[in-house]
Amino acid sequence: MKTMLKTLLSAVLFVVLGLTLPLSSTLLADDGNEKPNIVFIMADDLGFNQIGCYGDTPIKTPSLDRLAKTGIRFTQAYSGNTVCSPSRVSLFTGRDGRLMENNSNKVQLRDIDVTMAHVLKHAGYDTALFGKYSIGSQMGVTDPLAMGFDTWFGMYSILEGHRQYPHILWRDGKKIRIKENEGGKNGAYAQELFADEAIDYIKQEHDNPFFVMLNFSSPHAELAAPKEFVQPYENAFPETPYTGMSTGTPADKYAWYYPEPVANPNATLAGMVTALDAYVGNIVDTLEQKGIVDNTIIVFTSDNGPHDEGGGDPEFFKASQPYKGMKRDLFDGGIHVPMIVSWPAKVTQGRVDTTPWAFADVLPTFADVAGADLNLVPRVKTNGVSINGRLNDKPIEIRERILYWEFGKQVGDPNSGVIGEVFQAARRGKWKAVRYGLNEPVQLFDIENDPGESQELSKKHPEIHREFVDLFSEHQG
Q: Residues with Cβ < 8 Å from 120, sequence gap 6 or more?
């Protein structure tokens, strides 16, 4: 009876949205197997080399390392953009870097957009969002409950997303006080709250498969974490204290935004990453205890490259290695992210996968594994492709294609929204091109043999260079 009622409610929802509910909305995928649960976990500003299984970092991440060892560790995965909001818009909508409106830097989720949550509702899923929403330059344009989620708990605005011990959070559109953090106290760590809410949701009885999106707002500055995670790193690294606004003459350009001093920023950032790892481990443990981990797809990634704000030092941790750049760059250090996928029912042997793919591909991939026909969902604008064929022990090759990004670099105050330059980047196979400004030259690199993008090759390969020049000209506004 509950399942029938939910199906009827879903039908009403999709009629209201102008979408079409398939006549055969069942709990079976196209191949007749039970549809998998999906848990998508995203860190905020986590660098490619800040997880143990991706390099030589001193940061301990045993849970993620174990997940990678038994699943798929993608080494050529990309975010949707080099900063959080446009990257999330790409993820939610399945659209690549062609997101800016006439180079106006207004990249935001619109109320007419169809999201992956809508698509999975269409396929019969229960949907929930926990953590950072923060989509677009204007908060209040969209609400998660209107964008396909049945329930949500977390941070709504960009500013809220920069506080590790927030005074307020949101539950299903209603503001709630976090009393444990009032009066100068740090009693409730946001990331732990998000993970605990996700765990409570997973523990509930569901008549349908579920889609859980868990968006951490860490290790993005501000730098702060519970002592139990920071303490193991104390005295492990050389430290330059972050003074914030305490000296009156802060050297950090973001001090006005992160005013609190941090005595040991390297230990704190390492503790933040290890804390996320522990929370991911708790999610996996919950799925195992409930007996549903085998047919649950778990994805872990980051929204963009590492930051240098609030005391963060990506150079010390070699956070982007072997890539060049960091957050706000379209060199690979700003957009090349860790991507771990676990699905024990399909992936029984851990492996490393070198397939290039990006956030725009997540929506069509989830639609594919859920048996949702995107042709039956009006207004879906995805230009990504499904990589479902890679999520098994006998992966199917995906045809070579062009991945594309663009970023409107702000002038002065990074939150001003005033556009200064438009950056573009694209990748096809081993070739990567970047242009830092519409009037600047297009640079060409062999990203496979030169991951640090240090050898410019436009003169040696003029035909390939011309292909990217034409592409950038086509999409420059």
A: 38, 127, 148, 211, 366, 367, 370, 372
Per-residue CA distances from 374 to 114, 185, 326 (Å): 11, 48, 34
Q: Residue 153: its pLDDT value, please?
A: 97
Please count the residues of the chain: 477
241 plus 358 within the same structural domain: yes
| 251 or 455, higher pLDDT | 455
Residue-by-residue DSSP string for 208-233: S-EEEEEEEEEESSS----HHHHGGG
Q: Is the pTM of this model over 0.70?
A: yes
Q: 3-state SS of 231-271?
A: HHHCCCCCCCCECCCCCCCCCCCCCCCCCCCECCHHHHHHH
pLDDT in tens, 399-458: 999 999 999 865 444 444 445 688 999 999 999 999 999 899 999 999 999 999 999 999
Residue 247 structure tokens: 């000296």
Residue 186, SS3?
Answer: coil
Give me the domain span that covers residue 149.
2-398
Q: Measuring CA to CA, which residue among 352, 301, 336, 340 is closest to residue 453?
A: 336
443 in the same domain as 327: no
Task: Tell me the CATH number at 125.
Answer: 3.40.720.10
Average confidence (pLDDT) over 159-174: 91
DSSP 362: H
